Amino acid sequence: MTSPITLGFRDSRTMLRRNLLQIVRYKSLTLMLIAQPLIFLALFVYVFGATMGAGLPGGGGRGDYLDFIMPAILVLTVTSIALNTAYTIALDMEKGIIDRFRTMAIARSAVLTGRVLAAVVLTAVAQAVVLAVALVLGYRPAGTALGWLGTAGLLLAMTLALTWLTVALGLAAPNAETASNTPMPLLFLPFLSSGFVPTESMPAAVRWFAEYQPFTPIINTLRAWLSGAAAGADAWWAFGWCALIAAACFLWARRLYSRVRAH
């Protein structure tokens, strides 16, 4: 007799395959999700880079600013794809596909788990593309092997946290249009952090918010590890925020999935 855990893995793999096929089938949407952080990268490097780089502590140029903003661009890549997860989950609810899955003999957790795993795969591909383009533009990270391992682990933890958050937002939304707008603050929060300018240059109230919101320790940790430096306490805060958000949103999404009827 097949155990429930084995069935859960099997059904999650099936749902992952379904969602990956959707990603391949809707090429224009997938390309747009990957292109969005690349547009931000080109904009900040070639339009603002020279001026913003000169304003960094110790001065600098466009190349120094590219090194400075790369962690924020990687974070924006995660948020861009997480936003799409909320929309696709709500769209499945709206079209009745979720209701159809509920009538089938599959593990209840597989529908959401497959969606989250597909988002992780797409985010990893997008991160690789963004890093490759950054290297072409002149980005030369000095991180150690251990630093790169930590960077990959933190990006994975952040992807899981934000994806579970947007899964819950998608389930809670009354329709797909609302689900596409509700998570938008996630796209703007990296701009109110240490991602694009040092927090010391911000007005007092904005600086206080920037220094205590979750994206700042995440970006500071990525910047330290990618430059070969030690992250210190920021790493603990970064992983702590990711674990807290992932656990809370997983429980929230599971509760919504078991109680909320499809639209």
Question: Helix coverage percent of residues?
Answer: over 70%
In terms of quaternary structure, the protein is single chain
Q: Enumerate how many helices there are, as a single number.
A: 12
% residues in beta strands: under 5%
Mean of pLDDT? 89
Major sheet summary line: none
Membrane topology: Multi-pass membrane protein
Pfam family, one: ABC2_membrane
GO molecular function: ABC-type transporter activity
Protein name: Transport permease protein
Description of the molecule:
The model has no long low-confidence stretch (mean pLDDT 89). This protein is an all-alpha fold. Helices cover 78% and strands 0% of the residues. Helix 2 (27-46) runs antiparallel to helix 4, helix 6 (108-137) packs across helix 7 (145-172) and helix 11 crosses helix 12 (233-259). The protein has one domain (22-259). The protein has helices at residues 4-25, 27-46, 49-54, 62-95, 97-102, 108-137, 145-172, 176-181, 185-188, 204-212, 215-226, 233-259. The protein is built from twelve helices and no strands.
